[in-house]
Amino acid sequence: xxxxxxxxxxxxxxxxxxxxxxxxSNTQSQNTAQRQIEHFENTTIAMERVTENYLEGEQRICDxxxxxxxxxxxxxxxxxxxxxxxxxxxxxSAHIVFLDSLSGLSSKARQDAPDDYSVSYARVSLLEDVRxxxxxGSSINISRAYTNPVNGEQSLAFCNLITLYDPDTDVPKDAIxxxxxxxxxxxxxxxxPQEEYENAELSMIDADGNYIIKDHSFKNSNFFxxxxxxxxxxxxxxxxxxxxxxxxGSFSMYxxxxxxxxxxxxxxxxxxxxxxxxxxxxxxxxxxxENWMLVGIVSVGLLILxxxxxxxMLYFNQKLHAAxxxxxxxxxxxxxxxSTMSHDIRTPMNAIIGLTTIAKKNLDDTESVxxxxxxxxLASNHLLTLIxxxxxxxxxxxxxxxxxxxxxxxxxxxxxxxxxxxxMIKEKNIEFHFRISRMExxxxxADQLRLNQIxxxxxxxxxxYTEPGGHVSVDMREDESKKPGCVQLxxxxxxxxxxxxxxxMANMYQPFSRQTDSRVNSIQGTGLGLAITKQMVDLMNxxxxxxxxxxxxxxxxxxxxxxxxxxxxxxxxxxxxDVLIVDDDPILLETAADTLKSLGVxxxxxxxxxxxxxxxxxxxxxxQDYSIVILDWKMPDIDGIEMTRRIRSTVSPxxxxxxxxxxxxxxxxxxxxxxGANAFISKPxxxxxxxxxxxxxLGTGAKSAEPENDYSDxxxxxxxxxxxxxxNWEVISALLEMYGIxxxxxxxxxxxxxxxxxxxxxxxxxxxxxxxxxxxxGLDATKNIRALxxxxxxxxxxxxxxxxxxxxxxxxxxxxxxxxxxxxxxxxKLVIKEIRRIKEEKKV
Length: 844
Known about the structure:
Blueprint: H1 2-72, H2 76-86, E1 93-98, E2 103-106, E3 118-120, E4 146-147, E5 154-166, E6 171-182, H3 183-187, E7 201-205, E8 211-213, H4 223-230, H5 237-244, E9 249-254, E10 260-267, E11 275-281, H6 292-307, H7 310-361, H8 366-391, H9 393-398, E12 406-409, H10 410-428, E13 431-437, E14 443-446, H11 448-464, E15 471-480, E16 486-495, H12 502-505, H13 518-521, H14 528-539, E17 543-549, E18 553-563, E19 578-582, H15 586-598, E20 602-606, H16 609-622, E21 628-632, H17 640-651, E22 657-661, H18 669-675, E23 679-682, H19 687-698, E24 718-722, H20 726-737, E25 742-746, H21 749-758, E26 766-769, H22 778-786, H23 791-794, E27 798-802, H24 807-815, E28 820-823, H25 828-843
Parallel strand pairs: 13-15, 19-20, 19-21, 21-22, 22-23, 24-25, 24-26, 26-27, 27-28
Antiparallel strand pairs: 1-2, 1-6, 2-3, 4-5, 5-6, 7-8, 7-11, 9-10, 10-11, 12-14, 15-16, 16-18, 17-18
């Protein structure tokens, strides 16, 4: 009886499980169809973004042309000649049409008359009303599809208003500039995943349902008419039309053959009232997920479970628990790592966002914008280094960090350090000092990005763990090195923060270690920054020491021997003069006075504003005034701005005054200039900075020539660039042309192979190859080139230039036959370095 009951129960359980699997399979089938519809919608949105990027890119080209033509007071012939030179796309053309006659010139000859460049829009309704064309740069001005009057192709036109000089009347004439592209150019950007959506179609309509671009499935001249023609029973048509023109989504409808189809729609953000439609049969989305094999496997599994005894089941349960614990530990390690890197990434991001805001507010000040852009570049390079470390986690885990030395300016490195730190200093109202001593060599040869990371990690930690109102000081000095051709840089960061316990300091360089303190728990990060910093210092054969006491602050000291670069500024010597420097920091007074004396001037020092006013008044009454006065902004008795006012009102309105500060100058620069300050210098006071600023203020013009790199060895090189994305091609080609390098484009891997096959020996010096390209990717293109019979073609150097930055991607590129790898976004310095490496290898 018991055996029968067990069998009955077992059979009942198996039947119940099988029914559940069947029902579950049906549910999964429905869910899969719904997910595919959502995926189809997302693919449509992706196509919209591709379309939007394409429209914006082409409009920018038109805007650049229009802006250039308007700024040069050109005739129509001159404007057309300029555009012919500027063309990149072979299928594109440009028309310039006068508003009064609707006629003008084309950049390409008429199809029926090779010598005729005239064009007329008198019979084309496109330009009858030009009010839709906005000012240059304010929007995308694109026409609907129309017949190009020059060649008869269905085309789109990107437009802008221009003013041309009429030599006959000597009066400016209003005209329209049209950048005309065949519709096929846009259709080439619409590449659906063919394996998933073999019969998908794309079209564009305006708010009235009229087609901008129409695919072959839509029979009527208007989409809404098409819908009503084949979906007459749908009473919610008007509601659907309103959704199509105002939101993103999808719905089912019937086509002209009576097939049920799915239509996804999304507005084109960059062009008001235009909508992108994707259309395909519904049966391509219905995937049958009923898996009878799954039913069989479940049945067998149930039988096995009934046969296995309790001991075996317990054994597997223990294994599962152990695997779950390991997975939880791995997930926690990932979370800890990402949390740690968050604070390192936010540091340069704060600087980039802040400096961008400053640049926007000072667009009229060219020098200020230039300085901010330079600072943004430095912070961006530091951020790129952090991102590269995150992408290749094995570097951190195994300590395999590789140095890439190059010539750099220690002045720029320190400016980057100060600029990145300013937002955190300002937010916490921290008293900040940055002093330098005996910094004579401005240009050094080392891995600047790694050096920046060492300095920034230590300083940002000092600021982060210092409570509001505390103080942080940085001292940097240059000493003689025991290593030939090097200088010894000593970097000391002291803070009044929470300090560290001896127990924590014994393990502080271990990944993910943190001081146990309630105040630390509220600060983001787990301490990976110190671990990376220690690895980098060791890699550069330097030392890092720490002194700390709980509640009394911390001091880090980093000592590095860094090679001196061959590139240095010329000797800097000022004309004989008397300079007064005022600061309440005696150490800064001493180092600044030494720096000024090394420039050949006599420096007097004052530790307070009141003493300085006495000295200035005495000199004014008894002898010649000081040639220049250098004032600290933040002093305890009288600040620099107030002292500037007093000097101007009571002593002399003409003494040149320089204001110095270790804080963000944007908050005080306006008040300083209003008070009468002639210039502003950020601390620390480098020799070259003082030299250039004093010369600017005094108008002596005796600037030290900035050393320039010699790039003559690159002039005349010919490089083939395989790149399918227009903007990337324009960027890299423009950067290389700055160095005298000639470039040619291959739009995909197949075209690249064909160009190499047909090229004469020596036509190209090397190839920059993108990886992800249509028709043929970079890896396959490289393999095809390496298989060519021509010895020159098969051995031409090929460098990967791609956004695939993982170490396995680099290995894959090298295994395919490439000679190197450069990750995007490209650093032109690394590109030039790679080109020169290839040149040296070819010589050997």
